[in-house]
Design a protein that fits this description.
- This protein is an alpha/beta fold.
- The protein is 38% helix and 15% strand.
- The longest helix is centred in the C-terminal third of the chain and has 19 residues.
- The N and C termini lie far apart (78 Å).
Length: 340
């Protein structure tokens, strides 16, 4: 009889290979199982490797832009719609929700694939590509006051639901438990598998808070199951009038109902310029052309990694690349005919 200890659930999960399927039934089956990439040059930029013989700190980024609609929001959008369909909440109704962009694109993709009509309320000043992409999926767009930001879109969506309860189903991504659950059951186990259970720190920004809350909650559980702690750090813009689209400055915003500060170990306050600069650097030296919220995530992860390096502690720091940088371009309009 073997005297070897029985592996814990966390240890067994870490040994499970994560594989993206080669053939699927529909596009929504491609949501999740996103790659994890190591940021070698960013590590060298900040002397996180073993140049002086000390322990190395690894910096990894989860490529959520590889989801079929191009962002981390594919996960909660799919879970929210699947759960609503299972309950019968969408029978004879349109789904309506407020969004600053990525969730709207994800809702639009999932709605088109699953036959669910979508109406989105978004600030009128969101980037043109977000408006154009959601419209291409056949989504109905309603614009809120640009000066009221994402909170204004939330208020308008609620008013529309109150006026037309028979027309709309309002999932409210900011209060819907399916949002963090998508990351609890998807993003966190994937990170654990992909790092072989070696992840020591998880760092990402707060938007709806679904990513940070759901992922952190599960990583804490997996770490404790394996007999250690995983540190989970939130990042927020350092000012209410910031330029990091998709992120929330909670002191000046409506706090999402799904936000749970008890699963967070720390918060990093990020200037807009630092996030923008890092997005440019990641494109130039890692070949990852990502949005500014992703740049801010990497900048926050670098801060955590530098603290570990200064304390001469090893670490495996994981962050999220939320979407691609080309989503923020102003492209040509989609045209059916061209003149050569």
């Amino acid at each position: 009889m073997s005297n070897a200890p029985t592996p814990t659930g966390a240890e067994q999960l870490a040994l499970t290979e994560l594989v993206q399927p080669a053939r699927v039934d529909r596009v929504t089956d491609l949501v999740g199982a996103t790659p994890l990439v190591r940021l070698h040059q960013i590590e060298r930029d900040h002397q996180l490797d073993q140049l002086d013989g000390g322990p190395a700190v690894e910096l990894w980024a989860k490529c959520e832009f590889a989801n079929p609609a191009g962002s981390v929001k594919d996960r909660p959008a799919l879970r929210i719609i699947q759960d609503a369909l299972a309950r019968g909440d969408l029978a004879g109704k349109r789904l309506i929700d407020s969004t600053s962009g990525n969730t709207g694109i994800a809702y639009s993709m999932v709605g088109a694939a699953l036959g669910v009509p979508i109406t989105l309320v978004m600030p009128e000043n969101v980037s043109a590509p977000r408006k154009q992409v959601t419209s291409a999926y056949g989504t109905e767009l309603i614009y809120s006051d640009p000066m009221e930001g994402s909170d204004g879109a939330i208020v308008l969506a609620r008013e529309l639901v109150d006026r037309h309860p028979d027309r709309y189903y309002y999932p409210n991504q900011y209060a819907n438990p399916s949002n963090p659950l998508a990351h609890y059951e998807g993003t966190a186990p994937e990170i654990w598998q992909q790092t072989r259970g070696r992840v020591t720190h998880f760092v990402t920004g707060i938007g709806t808070s679904g990513t940070i809350v759901g992922t952190s909650r599960r990583l804490h559980e997996l770490g404790r199951d394996a007999g250690r702690e995983v540190t989970c750090v939130a990042m927020q813009p350092d000012d209410g009038m910031h330029g990091l689209e998709g992120l929330k400055h909670l002191p000046s915003s409506l706090v999402p109902e799904i936000y749970d500060p008890t699963v967070l170990d720390d918060t990093i306050w990020m200037p807009t310029e630092e996030g923008w600069d890092m997005a440019e650097r990641v494109a130039e030296v890692e070949g990852l052309f990502v949005g500014h919220s992703s740049g801010a995530n990497v900048a926050a992860a670098v801060r955590v990694a530098r603290e570990l390096r200064a304390a001469r502690q090893p670490g495996v720091v994981v962050t999220i690349l939320c979407d691609r940088g080309d989503r923020y371009f102003v492209p040509l309009e989609w045209e059916r005919e061209y003149v050569w």
